[in-house]
Amino acid sequence: MEKTLKRIHPVSDPEEAYFLQVSWEKDLGTGFGIILSDGQCAWTGKVSEAEISREAADMEMNREKYVEELKKALIAGEESAGKYNFTIS
């Protein structure tokens, strides 16, 4: 299993820092687990392969392109910094 951990700052409160951990088996396209933490509390979830396909279809986006965008937003390093905005709700 592969994992990444990155610090994110939501656009709604840029002074606040959250930590986003994403874990996956083969690639993000087969589904992944996610943990979001503010350093005191943590929230967990899972995203299935079917949910990824459904979201890509809802956005009228090629599934492979959608998975590439997920990689850039969720696991890419500094090269994607500033390209994606996060909102915590």
TrEMBL record:
Residues 18-88 form the XRCC4 N-terminal domain. The keyword Nucleus applies. One of its GO terms (molecular function) is DNA binding. GO terms for cellular component: DNA ligase IV complex; DNA-dependent protein kinase-DNA ligase 4 complex. It is found in: Nucleus. Residues 49-76 form a coiled coil. InterPro entries: DNA_repair_prot_XRCC4, XRCC4-like_N_sf, XRCC4_N, XRCC4_N_sf. Keywords: Coiled coil, DNA damage, DNA repair, Nucleus. Pfam families: XRCC4. GO terms for biological process: double-strand break repair via nonhomologous end joining; immunoglobulin V(D)J recombination; response to X-ray. This is XRCC4 protein. It comes from Smutsornis africanus (Double-banded courser).
